[in-house]
Amino acid sequence: MIKYLGSxxxxxxxxxxxxxxxxxxxxxxxxxxxxxxxxxxxxxxGYQVFANDHNAYAATLARCYVQADLGDVEQQxxxxxxxxxxxxxxxxxxxxxxxxxxxxxxxxxxxxIDAIREAIAAKALPPELHAVLLVSLMEAAxxxxxxxxxxxxxxxxxxxxxxxxxxxxxxxxxxxxxxxxGQAHQLDAIAAVAQLHADVAYLDPPYxxxxxxxxxxxxxxxxxxxxxxxxxTACKRTDVRQRKSDFNSAVNAAAAMQxxxxxxxxxxxxxxxxxxxxxxxxxxxxxxxxxxPVAVIQTDFKRYVGAQIGIYNPEGQRVGKVSHLxxxxxxxxVGPEADRVxxxxxxxxxxxxx
Length: 354
Fold this sequence. Notes:
With 354 residues, this protein is an alpha/beta fold. 38% of the residues lie in helices and 14% in strands.
């Protein structure tokens, strides 16, 4: 899967153990699905997963990793991947904007991105197969990018991987889950909780003012293929400035989060947050307590790599130091037996994690 700030890769074992400890649950709502790493893992564990995210690239990832089932797409996807892998490069929008106006990809790979993306568009594929091919291209581009993991900036010198030729691979699409076919939705979170329900709701909201759309604007443009006007050194989509979320606002985040907490249709809530967010542990615990008993699992992790190397200006000059190298991740469990669940999960885990 793609490199992603806020990815729950390191927390996945804990999240999976916690969902399993909830008992007879069969369905999970992943309300802020991002890369769908969590939804993908829970689908693999047999749960019916309903994934939601308001960004198009995230909805596409969910359509591939949560909604699409291997038996329905594998044969055609592999044939198309083989076909696209031998296409010659054809410079276009991606080359001009992401390779020449900026340096996110080597021009040779930019031309391949252009050629393959135009070929996908020309096929007019069914939605799930279309998503699988887009994710294959997104992940191929991610393997040869020249960033620290976010698209706020690119490296001053080419990353070694940027010189490798772009190659499509079959995404890790899963067979249908035992509990039923998953779904991918592209809704505002508050609208989603009014429409979707599940046994368990997993919430991993934005923590601060940094918008995922700004961090991953290339994936949004690659999926939409609307060839937007751009601004700034990072060549961000101009609509990054207009598309706002209350969850990225220090003024509005608490009210938006409380509305989601109060409105979500699930017996159990699992909420991921950390100590760099708008709310501290006590504040979020108070907000969640309106739904019932709350228990918390706290873990300590390294910050993402881009937060460890220093602060740089657009010219590549170091202009600031990193304040801290580690943060605290919280997993809040909300439900009638929250203390029992946390005790069970904690007992199963390695002592060093808690």
